[in-house]
Amino acid sequence: MSDGIRPEQINRKTEIFINDEFYHKQSDKWLREGDIVMVQSGHVGHTAVIPPELNNIAAHALIMFTDPKEEVSPYFLNFQFQTENIKTKLSEITTGNTIKHILSSEMKDFEMFFTDFEEQTAIGNTFQKLDSLINQHQQKHDKLSNIKKAMLEKMFPKQGETIPEIRFKGFSGEWEEKELGSVTQITMGQSPSGENYTNNSNDFILVQGNADLKNGFVVPRVWTSEVTKTATQGALIFSVRAPVGEVGKTNYDVVLGRGVAAINANEFIFQQLKKLKSDNYWHKVSAGSTFDAISSTELDSTLIWVSSDSEQTAIGNYFQKLDTLINQHQQQITKLNNIKQACLSKMFV
Question: The Type I restriction modification DNA specificity domain covers which part of the protein (predicted)?
Answer without folding.
Answer: 13-144, 174-335
